[in-house]
Amino acid sequence: MIDCIFCKIVNGKIPAEIVFENDHVMAFRDIQPQAREHFLFIHKAHQADLVEMVHENPEGVLQIMKAIGEFSKKTKMKENGFRVVTNIGRSAGQSVFHTHFHVLSDNHLGRFGK
Ligand code: AMP
Ligand code: ZN
Fold first, then answer.
1. Cα 49 to Cα 24, 52, 55, 94, distances in angstroms
2. Catalytic residue annotation
3. 88 C-alpha to center of ligand 1: Å?
4. Contact predicate 43/53, CB 8 Å
5. Atom of ligand 1 nearest to the CA of 30
6. Which ligand has the nearest atom to the CA of 7?
7. Among 4, 5, 17, which is best to mutate for testing ligand 1, by the most ligand atoms less than 8 A from CB?
8. Of 32, 36, 49, 70, which has the highest C-beta tally within 10 A?
């Protein structure tokens, strides 16, 4: 999609600190990290949000989850613990409308919502 910032990262039109890539999935560091380690995992094919994606590319959701799992084992993340979050809709804080999963890891994340 022409005006999508994450599609531009996929196409190499804007730079990002890429940490993982395969045929379907890409991951890069969030420019405004909310934890010591903060990555964004996306599918290379554009879908606006998770709800749209589970209808139109359910296999893609699994491909992203597998990539997160693989990455977590290659790094210390699996050992240290991490959190996966996706915001759906503006009121939930979604600001980029290309489905992405925030992957956050830190020494102590605290219990979500507590
Ligand atoms: P959300 O608010 O859930 O849609 O998440 C969008 C995330 O994308 C935010 O955490 C931003 O900091 C991040 N972000 C926006 N532009 C870029 C970029 N060019 N490179 C890396 N992360 C970005
Ligand atoms: Zn896109």
1. 16, 5, 10, 9
2. 100
3. 14
4. yes
5. 22
6. 2
7. 5
8. 49
| Ranges of each domain in the chain | 1-29
Q: Which atom of ligand 1 is nearest to the CA of 28?
A: 21
Q: Are 97 and 6 in contact (CB under 8 A)?
A: no
Please spell the DSSP secondary structure of 56-93, one letter per residue: H-HHHHHHHHHHHHHHHHHSSHHHH--EEE---SGGGT
Determine if residue 103 is left, alpha or beta; phi over 0 gives left, psi from -120 to 50 gives alpha, anything else beta.
beta
For residue 66, how far is its CA from the centre of ligand 2 (angstroms)? Answer: 20
pLDDT by residue, tens only, the chain of 114 residues: 779 999 999 999 999 999 999 999 999 999 999 999 999 999 999 999 999 999 999 999 999 999 999 999 999 899 999 999 999 999 999 999 999 999 999 988 888 765
Q: Tokens 């991951």 correspond to what residue? A: 27
Ligand 1 pocket mutation pick from 8, 9, 11, 31 by most atoms within 8 angstroms of CB = 31
